[in-house]
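COURSE: Structural Biology Practicum
ASSIGNMENT: Worksheet 4, Part C
STUDENT ID: 0417
INSTRUCTIONS: Below are two proteins. For each, the amino acid sequence is given first, followed by its structure token string. Answer the questions at the end about the second protein only.

PROTEIN I
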Amino acid sequence: MSHVAITNAVFDHDFNLSEIDIGNLKIIHAKSYEDHVLPCIEIHASNLVKDIEIIGQINADSYFPYCLEFLVGNGSDGGRPQCGPLTKSLGYQAVHQWRAVNDREVWLNDISTAEKLHAEMLERLTRIKAKVRG
């Protein structure tokens, strides 16, 4: 298992560790489902899935001063969310925060479209479930 923190480093190209401004690197914070603002630190399986590339490791002590234990929780209870293996969607929180500032109109439209598609899917599943029961 590994602790993985999501930082504010967002690029639109494949990058390497030398491109990151370490002095301005920060762990981003986001609202949890319980509406707490917490650092984005997750527990992931160390096994890498295909096509995931590690560009480097950074000493977390200067970015997060508290001890990180492998305790599963919600981030506000001393534990961290358990998120399974590392995937290509790792870091989506940083992309959302960047887009909220730099691509706001399109980002809000994308969210609205995704919410509509999700609601339509739930409606279809409800109809299918009713058919199966009926």
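PROTEIN II
(use this one for the questions)
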Amino acid sequence: MSAAQWERFFQICAEILGKGNWRIELSDSWCSFTTFRRLSESDAGYWTHGLPNSEDIYDSYIGDAGAWGQPFQYSELAHIVIPRTFMTDKGKEKSQNLEALAARLSAEKLPFRKTEIVLEIKLY
């Protein structure tokens, strides 16, 4: 994925899925993501946060101090998973409209994979 494709992907997510926040109970959107570095040099773990908001989306990276809490270069992103539903810490279930998201991504010819439970971009 090019930086321009990532930027557009995140813009579309922000438009369709709503505000993201690092605190699950305050977030309308949610995802898990990891970087190539974390997969190869660390614990192979994933971060979980709301999706970035439009003011955090730049041409080559996600900005600092937004929903993701720190900057991430698009070139480092290895995998992002957006679940159809997620549970808040207080047990409230929230839904994400993966059909609308997939339709927009398809219309703009952005690569992704969608199943019944998730939409993802996996680059490894």
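ANSWER KEY EXCERPT:
Q1: The longest strand covers residues 77-83.
Q2: Residues 7 and 59 are 6 Å apart (CA to CA).
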